[in-house]
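Quick one, tokens below. Sequence please?
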């Protein structure tokens, strides 16, 4: 990072107490969520993340799943802001349902949550993904434990999160379980087609796979992302992210100690060392962030990776003229907005 950019980021950084941040945007409005104990906070910005208001607290009944990519997820449509979180009376993987909170006043007030998973406690692993289009198509995906083994399930709303489809099985591994502790990622294209990425567990390998759907109900045969494999008898607890850009599915993910960028159907490209990658796009802009051994690293439009500061578990949204990042460090969440 140049001295000038370092000074700009340091001056613009905003910090909140909490962990496991996630970001969403609609136009220049940016929404940040994070958790602390049984409270989910939502903070809104009206100027592309340059300034944020005060946190709005959502007190969740029961214990909230937090830590190691567990935590709240946020999405925005033209009519609503949506937050999803897994919580249960006992928590800690003993129980847990996927709860959806909805706001129609830019996150100022929140309706009582609805439970998304049809089978009680099926979402107790706590790992899930949420995304939405401005037109109001919303998709939730999660690691599901309603049967022996871990499967990938989804649910879809087409009215800005008001009503939801029944749960749909997106993928069941022929080995009996997908990777048990890596979060899924989901993206929606302009034609409302969907792509879902997860870490599989096949023949001793823990590789990323992508499945596509036109309706969120039936899913195509899952396709491996990249060409290499990771032979591992453990869960790396690291799920990556993906975006849909026209006909391309572009993803960022970890294998061993490396971060890879991949266009589905092509060979992967190593972009750095680390873990916890996240990806975002706006038009032809493509931004990737991850945790390196020295801290958070941002790479925009294929340029040189730029160190941003100490921390882990980064989140990202890409805007036309800015990139907004948030990450966790020392029990606090840092958020910055960086001009292109």
């Amino acid at each position: 990072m140049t001295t000038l950019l370092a000074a700009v980021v340091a001056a613009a950084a905003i910090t909140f107490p909490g962990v496991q941040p996630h970001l969403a945007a609609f136009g220049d409005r940016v929404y940040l969520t994070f958790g602390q104990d049984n409270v989910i906070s939502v903070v809104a910005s009206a100027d592309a993340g340059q300034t944020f208001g005060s946190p709005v607290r959502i007190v969740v009944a029961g214990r909230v799943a937090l830590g190691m990519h567990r935590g709240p997820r946020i999405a925005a449509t033209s009519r609503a802001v949506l937050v999803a979180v897994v919580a249960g009376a006992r928590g800690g993987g003993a129980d847990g349902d996927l709860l959806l909170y909805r706001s129609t006043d830019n996150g100022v007030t929140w309706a009582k949550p609805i439970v998304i998973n049809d089978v009680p406690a099926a979402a107790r692993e706590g790992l899930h993904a949420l995304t939405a289009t401005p037109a109001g198509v919303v998709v939730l995906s999660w690691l599901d434990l309603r049967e022996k083994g871990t499967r990938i399930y989804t649910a879809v709303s087409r009215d800005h999160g008001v009503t939801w489809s029944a749960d749909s099985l997106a993928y069941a591994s022929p080995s009996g379980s997908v990777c048990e502790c890596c979060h899924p990622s989901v993206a929606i294209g302009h034609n409302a087609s969907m792509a879902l990425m997860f870490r599989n567990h096949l023949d001793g390998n823990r590789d990323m796979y992508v499945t596509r759907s036109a309706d969120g109900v039936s899913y195509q045969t899952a396709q491996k992302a990249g060409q290499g494999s990771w032979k591992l008898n453990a869960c790396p607890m690291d799920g990556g992210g993906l975006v849909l850009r026209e006909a391309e599915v572009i993803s960022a993910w970890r294998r061993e100690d490396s971060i890879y960028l991949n266009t589905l159907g092509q060979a992967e490209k190593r972009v750095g060392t680390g873990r916890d990658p996240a990806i975002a796009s706006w038009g032809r802009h493509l931004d990737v962030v991850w945790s390196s051994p020295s801290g958070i690293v941002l790479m925009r439009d294929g340029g040189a990776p730029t160190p941003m500061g100490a921390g882990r578990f980064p989140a990202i949204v890409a805007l036309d003229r800015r990139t907004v990042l948030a990450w966790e460090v020392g029990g606090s969440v840092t958020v910055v907005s960086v001009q292109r």
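DSSP finds one helix and 29 strands in the chain. The radius of gyration is 18 Å.
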